[in-house]
């Protein structure tokens, strides 16, 4: 269920999405309010689950993670036991940045960030040793054109 937000809430969220590390004073100034009401709104949005957590975005390439693969997975297994094993396998792998269950011909898509193709193969071999999959297609991203975590408020 969506939480009701007013214009000030949206402005505050916009500022937090742009730079979650900025000071409360800077956010208040940017949204045209004072510090205490801004802090109270942020606290309420945290309590309501609108703000999940604060984190920092790292530059993957600067840290040596130069390869980004989108992995398309088809499975002939759809029982609860297989799904639990698959979820455990994914959660235990920090290379998996995103995982989505899909409608259509492909069952799952993963975004996997690794240092290089050899590291992807190590990831792939480990995954298929833990869970049975029918078909895996790996697509190497040649260039990241757009990537954002900012929601269009």
TrEMBL record:
It comes from Roseovarius nanhaiticus. GO terms for cellular component: cytosol. Keywords: DNA-binding, Transcription, Transcription regulation. Residues 5-66 form the HTH asnC-type domain. One of its GO terms (molecular function) is sequence-specific DNA binding. The lineage of its organism: Bacteria, Pseudomonadati, Pseudomonadota, Alphaproteobacteria, Rhodobacterales. CDD domains: HTH_ARSR. GO terms for biological process: regulation of DNA-templated transcription; response to amino acid. Pfam families: AsnC_trans_reg, HTH_24. This is Lrp/AsnC family transcriptional regulator.
């Amino acid at each position: 269920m969506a939480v009701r937000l007013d214009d000030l809430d949206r402005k505050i969220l916009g500022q937090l999405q742009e730079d979650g590390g900025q000071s409360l004073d800077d956010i208040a100034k940017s949204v045209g309010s004072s510090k205490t009401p801004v802090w109270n709104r942020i606290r309420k949005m945290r309590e309501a689950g609108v703000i999940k957590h604060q984190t920092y975005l790292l530059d993957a390439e600067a840290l040596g993670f130069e390869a980004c693969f989108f992995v398309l997975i088809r499975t002939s297994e759809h029982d609860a036991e297989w799904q639990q094993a698959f979820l455990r396998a994914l959660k235990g792998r920090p290379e998996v940045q995103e995982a989505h269950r899909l409608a259509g011909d492909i069952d799952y898509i993963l975004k996997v960030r690794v240092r290089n193709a050899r590291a992807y193969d190590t990831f792939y071999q480990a995954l298929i040793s833990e869970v049975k999959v029918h078909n895996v297609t790996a697509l190497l991203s040649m260039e990241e054109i757009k990537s954002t975590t900012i929601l269009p408020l």
